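Recap slide: Aldehyde dehydrogenase family protein, sequence and predicted structure.
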Amino acid sequence: TALAPGRLAGELTRTTVQLRILAAAVRDGRYLDARIDHADADAAPAPRPDIRRYLVPVGPVLNFAASNFPFAFSVAGGDTASALAVGCPVVVKAHPGHPELSRRVAEAASAALVAAGLPEGTLQLVEGEEAGLAVLRDPRIRAATFTGSLRAGRFLADVAAARPDPIPFFGELGSVNPVVITERAAAERGEDIASALVASAAGSAGQLCTAPGIVLIPAGHGLDPVLAEEAGAVAPHGMLNPRIAEGYAGGRAAAIAVDGVRLVAEGRAPAGDDGSVTPTVAAVSLADFEAAADVLRHEVFGPFALLVEYPAGTDLAALAACTFQGELTASVHLGAEEADPAAAELIRVLAARAGRVLVDAWPTGVSVTDAQQHGGPWP
């Protein structure tokens, strides 16, 4: 995967934390969402019998493993663990980017499940696109999960919906994770925001579902030197596999070829056998962005951030409302004491379009907690 050992070790810890959190949910029974109304002969408008409602397992679940988190979003990752926790057997379609690891994890997890008293075959692994499609179409599968590209995810969602008995499809299909920097925030702490932006966009070579991709920032912000210096200091990092490297190179090239886009930090694109990259930061005026939104509004999966420079006095809530659709995250950076109605309306608009809204914070480094939200409106 070209992911650094430190990153992988941290991810493995996260994976075990996910499993333990879900084990705790099983023990306390909250996942059942149980509701009980005892019999009441005096209930209005008529006597009521004893009524009990609780959730039951839907049946076998198919999980299409992700490429960018080979532990936490793969064979024994969150999708698999949550399905197992509520009593659903799981078939994992392994990602081709880490097949050997997928097999080893499947062996270890299957052995642990059997040792805990679950039946053989509670967790199974299949490999290859055709095998994955065959399982998705199998009438015994009652739900499917996916993390990956919009193109692949939409195709699989359509397959799930086209079955004689359509099934739920839980997909995470891409996000630009917009960041909105107000004029006051840029004036008060612009350099700190610029440094943190590069760090968030460049982590793991930008191959994170929550990496910030589009940044609304005041025109004339004067932060180009800081952004260029911070991006230039990032060490080269390999990409997950040749297909992702090719996709990043193409998306990056298409974005920077748009009229009006300028390079703040050129960065390194994958080339030939050298798939290593460094961050690219580009900038464009709001007018030029809107003229080429069909190209620039899409996710570029990798260490790429696009600054969209808006004129002074822009209604940021209205701009966000017409610019962004369904996102995993949205971040807003405010000035000190900037708690006016305009800021509140901006946050409200972002909350309608993103699963998670952050104020004066960055979307990468997702905490694994009960209150965490990872998902949003389509796509």
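Residues 250 and 300 are 9 Å apart (CA to CA).
The chain is about 40% helix and 20% strand.
(End of recap.)
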